[in-house]
Amino acid sequence: MNTKGKVFKYPDNVDTDVIIPARYLNTANAKELALHCMEDIDTEFVKKVEKGDVMVAGWNFGCGSSREHAPLVIKTCGTGCVIAKSFARIFYRNAINIGLPILECEKAAEEINANDEVSVDFDTGLITNHTNGKTYKAQPFPPFIQNIIKCGGLLKSLKEGENDD
Amino acid sequence: MGMTMTQKILAAHAGLESVTAGQLINAKLDIVLGNDITTPVAVNEFKKAGFNKVFDKDRVAIVLDHFVPNKDIKAAEQSKQCREFACSHCVSHFYDVGKMGIEHALLPEQGVVTAGDCIIGADSHTCTYGALGAFSTGVGSTDMAAGMATGMAWFKVPSAIKFNIKNKLPSNCSGKDVILTIIGMIGVDGALYKSMEFCGDGVASLSMDDRLCICNMAIEAGAKNGIFPVDEVTKAYMNGRCERKPVVYEADADAEYEKVIDIDLSKIVPTVACPHLPENTHPASELSDIKIDQVVIGSCTNGRMEDMEIAYRILSGKKVADGVRCIIIPGTMQILRECVEKGYYTAFIDAGAVVSTPTCGPCLGGYMGILAAGERCIATTNRNFVGRMGHTESEVYLASPATAAASALTGYITHPKEV
């Protein structure tokens, strides 16, 4: 599994209120919500994002509320992966549970620039910046989490577990 | 090696003798919680995965609190979906308008959560219940769906930071000033993935409302949970209230902590977090030239009875400054009722404030106090991110009920001793 696309670069502490403002949370429809993704810090994002594109951000990405709508809108917009120096814990958990690939890699998050062309191999954690040829190695997920992703999310992995009994 | 209090609760719920930081475990849940924003997503996932019953109708709690009484048609549809799900699964802890409160004020008050519990909630401030000596953490809707279906959740056992609390708070200060001071010290990711364990001789001087407020904002330091030991104050609060028997866990004497931070309560001052991060804290006394347009006293952080009492003491017999809107939101129907009985409600109205039924409303920019471009609000809520309470060019200053109420009287950020 991998993704390739251009980079949208964001700072430290990107919170769930700017990823998807609560004023839109009167619906759970992901497509409708995705129209407002990143709206409060980057009104251009939804106009420019294309399938496979990569978000690169600083420390503590996704801090704030537990709203699963946040990773969901990022994924629904077509974003192929989020690379950050670190993720807030509920966002991290939610991203895994809904199947949005995320990677923690401080060096990549530091050096990759907006609009660079980047590809990510999720199996190996290899990040390649095609704009300058640099590569980075992120920590792959532990096996427990790889299994959730392989099954296509937490609930599907639970269903498979049920069938094993 | 010994375990922290959090690790002991997790080990017990995973059926293990001991656990260590970093270990992945599957733990039994005592309560699974959702609200009117997160439950619809969970219900969709629950159904999509083909589950047709909840693991235990008495262990699921659904509270409609974010956008109720419904702010618009879409919100009404979401509430309706929650209501139908709760009804069809006979969820015993379903709280609708008339019975509801802000979830993290309501569940402890109603005795739904208790000491020793392992709780997940599809709301980030679920960490509040650590005040009762429970392990309690916020998750997303998919985790809620899985928890409702199986009664289990996976966790990575957290390491911990110990906060050694000593002495007593000065008058004019409360739990909010303590937690804002701590977040200012360690930053919004200072406890990322970790437990914040509060202990020490000073704990006994903190009321339950102070402790609930402190644990409530553990998430604002990135923590997985915040937790207090169970003492006489906790026992007095739980006595006759909790529907299940409390189980008391204590940290081992040789428990390992990543860091120990001393907090001297006597040195705490009224503290304000300036835009746009809860870590951007300053003493209220240094912000007296900041003019405000709105005051919000309420939320899952500070909508409890003691918060109402503090607001009453400051606002009673006085007038909210011209040009300031002061919105007071008691956290639960019981608190609202008590405000009526004690005459607080009348005093608030006479002071020129408005009083709402319980709702999360303005805290997350939902309704009931949205800010226009360029407006400033001092609020007892928990987040001051860009656009949190309305327009992206509005500003939220986080403070205690005392500082917020004092500021309502002057129209500027004000140290409570000034009024």
Structure summarized in a few sentences:
Chain A is of the alpha/beta class and 165 residues long.
Topology:
The complex is a heterodimer of chains A (165) and B (419).
Chain A: E1 2-9, H1 16-19, H2 30-34, H3 45-48, E2 54-57, H4 69-76, E3 81-84, H5 89-98, E4 102-104, H6 106-111, E5 117-121, E6 126-129, E7 135-137, H7 143-151, H8 154-164
Parallel strand pairs in A: 1-2, 2-3, 3-4
Antiparallel strand pairs in A: 1-5, 5-6, 6-7
Helix pairs in contact in A: 7-8
Chain B: H1 5-14, E1 24-28, E2 31-35, H2 38-48, E3 60-63, H3 73-88, E4 93-95, H4 103-109, E5 118-121, E6 135-138, H5 141-150, E7 152-156, E8 160-166, H6 175-186, E9 195-199, H7 208-216, E10 225-227, H8 232-238, E11 259-264, E12 271-273, E13 281-283, E14 294-297, H9 299-302, H10 305-315, E15 325-328, H11 333-341, H12 344-351, E16 354-355, E17 376-379, E18 395-398, H13 401-410
Parallel strand pairs in B: 2-3, 2-5, 3-4, 5-6, 8-9, 8-11, 9-10, 14-15, 14-17, 15-16, 17-18
Antiparallel strand pairs in B: 1-7, 12-13
For the record, the CATH architecture of chain A stands as Alpha-Beta Barrel
With strands numbered from the N-terminus, the spatial order across the biggest sheet of chain A is 4-3-2-1-5-6-7
Our Rg estimate of chain A from Cα atoms comes to 15 Å
In what range is the share of β-strand residues of chain B? 15-25%
Could you tell me the mean pLDDT of chain B? 98
Main attributes?
heterodimer; A: about 160 residues; alpha/beta; about 35% helix; B: about 425 residues; Aconitase, domain 3; five-stranded parallel beta sheet; 13 helices; about 20% strand
